[in-house]
């Protein structure tokens, strides 16, 4: 019988771990849609591997949600600035400004709301991604 090389078994283990984590992520998303809760008793009943996978999955879902929130924050800020009547998107909805709206509706702190809205100075990444999004919406490349 031939043993698999260490790199092949490591690759197989990595693939299995990624598959487990993907399934855990899907279960987390489904639980959020159903508005299911998670209790300490439920977690205490898990083995170490399941707890690790759940922790990773929840972290991944949080990162996805934060990226979505950044896109929404940029759009709300843009609509708040672009209104020709001088009363922007956020103010029409009873907020002082877009960061205030994001803070209340997005459940983030004031500094985090401003960070999500302001373009990154080091790379200009937000400006580039929003420009690319507008081009895609217009059917361009």
Indicate the topology.
Blueprint (H helix, E strand, L loop, with lengths): L5 H29 L5 H5 L3 H35 L6 H4 L5 H9 L3 H8 L7 H13 L4
Helix pairs in contact: 1-3, 3-5, 5-6
Protein name: ANTAR domain-containing protein
Organism: Demequina litorisediminis
Compressed to H and E, one letter per element, the order equals HHHHHHH
Strand content: under 5%
Query: What spatial form do the alpha-carbon principal axes imply?
Result: elongated
Q: Please give the share of residues in helix.
A: over 70%
First-last Cα distance: 54 Å
What is the tally of helical segments?
A: 7
Mean residue pLDDT: 80
Instruction: Give a quick account of the main beta sheet: strands, pairing sense, barrel closure.
Output: none
Annotation, overall tally of beta strands: 0
How many structural domains does the protein architecture include? 1
Radius of gyration: 21 Å
Low-confidence stretches: 122-138
Structural class: mainly alpha
Overview of this protein structure:
The protein has one domain (7-137). The longest helix is centred in the middle third of the chain and has 35 residues, at 48-82. It contains seven helices and no strands. Helix content is 73%, strand content 0%. It has helices at residues 6-34, 40-44, 48-82, 89-92, 98-106, 110-117, 125-137. It is elongated. It is mostly helical. It comes from Demequina litorisediminis. Residues 16-26, 112-141 have a biased composition (Basic and acidic residues). This is ANTAR domain-containing protein. Residues 1-26, 80-141 are annotated as: Disordered.
């Amino acid at each position: 019988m031939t043993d698999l090389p260490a790199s092949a078994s490591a690759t197989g283990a990595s693939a299995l771990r990624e598959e487990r984590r993907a399934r855990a992520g899907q279960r987390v998303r489904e639980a959020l849609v159903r508005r299911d809760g998670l209790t300490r008793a439920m977690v205490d009943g898990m083995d170490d591997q399941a707890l690790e996978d759940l922790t990773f999955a929840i972290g991944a879902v949080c990162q996805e949600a934060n990226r979505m929130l950044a896109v929404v924050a940029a759009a709300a800020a843009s609509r708040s600035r672009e209104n020709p009547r001088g009363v922007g998107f956020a103010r029409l909805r009873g907020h002082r400004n877009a960061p205030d709206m994001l803070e209340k509706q997005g459940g983030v702190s004031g500094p985090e709301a401003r960070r999500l809205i302001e373009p990154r100075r080091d790379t200009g990444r937000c400006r580039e991604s929003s420009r690319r999004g507008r081009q895609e919406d217009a059917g361009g490349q």
